[in-house]
Specification:
globular, 21 strands, 16 helices, FAD/NAD(P)-binding domain, alpha+beta
Amino acid sequence: MPRADEPRGLPTLPMTDEPPVAATLRIAVVGGGWAGLSAAIEATRRGHRVTLFEMSGQLGGRARRVEVDGTVLDNGQHILIGAYTATLELMRLLGIAADDVLLRTPLRLIGPDGSGLALQGGSPTISFVRAVLGHRAWGWRDKLLLLRVAASWARLGFVCDAPLSVSQLCTRLSAPVRAQLIDPLCVAALNTPADSASASVFLRVLKDALFSGPGSADLLLPRRSLSEIVPAPAARWLERAEASILLSQRVERLQSADSGWLVNDQPFDSAILAVTAVEAARLVEPLRPEWSAQAAALRYEPIITVYARSAGVRLPHPMLALASGAQGDNPAQFVFDLGALNGDTGLLAFVISGASRWVDRGMDGTVEATLTQGRRELANLLHNPLVPLRALTEKRATFACTPGLERPPAAICTGLVAAGDYVDGPYPATLEGAVRSGLNAARALTK
């Protein structure tokens, strides 16, 4: 009998209103991350023959599975939100029930002492207003000013001048509001510190999360390894659809041919580059130097995840906000109780976003500073020593989402498109951005 999360047959849930085209194309998808898997599935659903090339030995890209001393971990702690409609639709297509693999909670930026912003269910707008008014650490002037500023953003359609940073956008807000709300939201959503993050992208995220309907601002915290949520089910779906998946196959050559494209000397009608911007720039440079240069010019922000154990610990919420800032010795912005999510009691994940400064400091110093922060801020919750398990660094976790950033377009050449969270679009580097870009790439090639 198949497992509950295995797709039975080939589901036909529509991810697009456009009908499949009549002609069958041979499509190469280069890259097996969430963008590449989304592109491969969408192209297959449209009746095309897909071959997926993945340079590593497993699918998933930067959201991949690692194992440390018998403990299965993700290569960094990821979260989703209710506004990730394309990702949730992809999971439904794959036969994955979101409630089985994701813990849905209202958005909470709550600290270990219980203070912070906590939204309730229902309309995100109404819940946001109530949460602001009920914030115990802010004065009435702070609260009313925040609501007035947020209302002004809404009146302007959540649009602002491209050169503005998030810090410049929020200069009218009080220091406590910026430190306890804007800064953690910004670094969580854009993985870029507020003083160098794009205000226009930040506003787009706020619009979709807080003002696009009930549940859109909810946090969706993985109960399982991300590999089990999309990559593994996607691989099973593609194999049943007779798509070809080639692991440990780096694409060394991409050449234009009379009938389409040669990928590692294999002929295809079209190709989708769903690799990193660095890898895409390498492959495209002989074909479109200007596109390659734009992709190669992107700068990056790292993310460090410090996994640690403290026997028997249970946090009051699965995710807590920690006191962190651009200066000082508090590296982590959030800590996750993995015991509350996947049952591995005592396992905590401390997340350091926008971590360039800590990468420069060195891993040993970063781990020690993180554990010191954890012992101090969680002192009333830890009844046993907090000991390190593993620190994982993704140096190119996301592109630096800076004001006025010009990202490379999806279109490269006729029959060749790019997919990935870095391609031009309204969203920062997120799983949702990757999924949407993959769907769009497949649709562009198969119209």
